[in-house]
Design goal:
This protein has three helices and 23 strands. By secondary structure, the protein is mainly beta. Strands 3-17-16-15-23-18 form a six-stranded mixed β-sheet, with helices on both faces. A five-stranded antiparallel β-sheet has the order 13-12-11-6-14, with no helix packed on it. The protein has a four-stranded mixed β-sheet with strand order 19-20-21-22.
Amino acid sequence: MRTKYFIGSVLILHTFLYSCTENRPKVQESPQDMAKQDSLAQLKKVEEEEKKRPLTAADINLTKALTFEKYALEDRYKYKDTFRVFQWDKIKAQLALIENFQREHNNYAVVVNYKNKNGEAPTIANFKRNAYKRVSDSLGTERYQSVPLYKVGETKLPTIYGRDGSLVKIQRNDTLKMVTIKGLTNFEGEWDIPKRYVKPIGDTASFKHVVVVDVKNQNICALEHVDGGWKIRSMNPATTGKHAPPYAMETPVGIYLLQEQKPKMFYYKDGTTDIAGYAPWASRFTNGAYIHGVPTNSVKAPIIEYSATLGTIPRSHMCVRNASSHAKFVYDWIKPNQSLVIVID
């Protein structure tokens, strides 16, 4: 805008400038910019959905980085007139399951009834008797040393049994006698269970140390979760439980929480309460099943390092025999309530 001023006979034109930025039209985004923003938003959405997607065996990164090399086996090795292997694909599938439930916020617990210390579980309605003449459910889980699992809201009779050492998530804990749990390993779904069978271990547990026992190939490996992947720390021969009623039993397939450790696990002579010997460096994961060293035949005998029967055929009483130095490695490396034992077939 211009304003006229007269000073004497001189005409002065004064120009005033005003800012019009508030009325300036908005700059329109180009089609290319809009397409780029849409693409970035879509990529972010895909990434978020990918993070939520359950992991599978194909997602597990498994690399060999042995820290215990004595008696180490190859991925595929000769046994008599055939070959045995480490079943890495099956192991990866189990590791994926473990990683998936650890993505959630879980109030962890373990179900416990070692030697029926928390009371013998009630008999289910449609029980069976197995080869050992013991009561079991339709899934083959024995009543002895197991816990009763009731359908939610029903407390008359349990439906199935849950193996000692199975990891669970506490869903509800608002009654005096019962707690509602969700099975994370060995059984699925939500169940009610008497509180005396449930041992809480909190919501901060992180399972980075895993031992895998293969009852088919009679071997054992130790795995550690490091920087988003899994490192193989040992690969050794082992001997698992045999089916020999009424005393010797198979090592049960499943995923278990390591529960306790003993430098010496003393054992009875079959059918008696006489101590026959001991097994060194014993780590218990379910019922009376331990990962341990070579058993002796006397309580006074020195530790036996190795046995020619390791890695051959099942011959133990549910336990998992190792070279004693490997059992010591496992004993020192895994910790109760922080480590898992996987048994595959």
